[in-house]
Write a structure and sequence with these properties.
alpha+beta; Structural Genomics Hypothetical 15.5 Kd Protein In mrcA-pckA Intergenic Region, Chain A; Pseudouridine synthase; 3 domains; 10 helices; disordered N terminus
């Protein structure tokens, strides 16, 4: 008896007897890790189970055992053992009217800055994670997959912190994702952020080059943090002061940060090291100063993304305007000497 294609059977809600599935990798799936490929379309299957069937050898690629990190190539045949999908709790939640309504609400607050057959670029709002995780049911990617079901392929090109707003790139084609990842690895993209920092950052007419080695570590509660450490990975941010503002004895600085590398929390840690933490930064900031200026959010906004279009070769420059919260905060200050 011929088995149904896995992409259909894994989405089914029925409890029909599970069967071995053979799936041929096409051009849009090529380049993915085996574990990511399985997790993507086996939605609802516990992650631990997916890794178990890979490591036990029940999953085969071209009739051979494979590792979770194995990169799939177009034409590969992936064998998946019987997997019974009952409609797990997380997927059931996604299918509820309430969750769909929440997703639509998030989508309405996430304007599209650019879209064509290969790319979807949105203006991510502050407070929305790029993807779901522990305690987070819906992120940007889940929201868009629910509200844009016609998109058969949709993946994040890069990430933004949950509390950072601004330009976020997603790929609608596997080939576009691979090409943009290559550009990022080879330093061919331009990512710039606006930020408001505590105090007056002293700088001349040029651009300040911040270069620190960064090390990731975990707190006792499992939360991720980053610190400057000589044994860490090199990082580089170009910082340009745009405007200094004062309100009595309190000062803040509007600056533009251009990423030369893309380490976790890079800009936030660089500004902390500089002694001018970003307003509203609950991880690397100054809580007492945030209370004085009445910070409403993390004042970090990805305002520009520059890259080469993966299909047309056109030089792209996508921008997002300064958020209303930035403008409101700046209005409570005045530029010194009417500058």
């Amino acid at each position: 008896m011929k088995s149904e294609p896995i992409s259909k059977s894994l989405q089914a809600k029925t409890s029909a007897p599970a069967a071995v599935h053979l799936q041929t990798i096409g051009p849009e799936e090529a380049g993915q890790r085996l574990d990511n490929y399985l997790l993507r379309w086996a939605k609802g299957v516990p992650k631990s189970h997916v890794y178990r069937i890979i490591r036990s050898g029940e999953v085969r690629v071209n009739k051979k055992r494979a590792e979770p990190t194995t990169r799939l190539v177009e034409g590969d045949v992936v064998r998946v053992p019987p997997v019974r999908i009952a409609e797990p709790a997380q997927m059931a939640a996604v299918n509820t009217a309430q969750t769909k309504s929440r997703a639509q609400g998030y989508s309405d607050k996430m304007p599209v800055l650019f879209e064509d057959e290969a790319l979807l670029i949105v203006n991510k709002p502050v407070g929305l994670a790029v993807h779901g995780g522990s305690g987070i049911a819906l992120g940007v990617i889940e929201t868009l997959r629910i509200t844009r079901p016609e998109l058969k392929f949709l993946e994040l090109v890069h990430r933004l912190d949950r509390d950072t707003s601004g330009v976020l790139l997603l790929a609608k084609k596997r080939s576009a994702l691979v090409e943009l990842h290559r550009q990022i690895r080879e330093g061919q993209t331009d990512k710039r952020y606006y930020l408001l920092a505590h105090g007056e950052i002293a700088q001349g007419a040029g651009t300040m080059q911040l270069k620190f080695a960064l090390h990731k570590y975990l707190l006792a509660n499992g939360e991720r943090r980053v610190r400057v450490d000589p044994d860490g990975l090199p990082s580089h941010t170009a910082l340009r002061v745009t405007k200094l503002m004062k309100r009595g004895e309190v000062a803040i600085t509007l600056a533009e940060a251009q990423l030369k590398t893309g380490r976790t929390h890079q800009i936030r840690v660089h500004l902390q090291k500089l002694g001018h933490s970003i307003l509203g930064d609950d991880k690397y900031g100054f809580e007492d100063q945030d209370k004085i200026v009445k910070s409403k959010r993390l004042y970090l906004h990805a305002h520009l993304a520059g890259f080469t279009h993966p299909r047309t070769g056109e030089k792209m420059r996508v921008e997002s305007p300064l958020p209303a919260e930035f403008i409101a905060m700046m209005k409570t200050f005045e530029a010194p000497n009417n500058a």
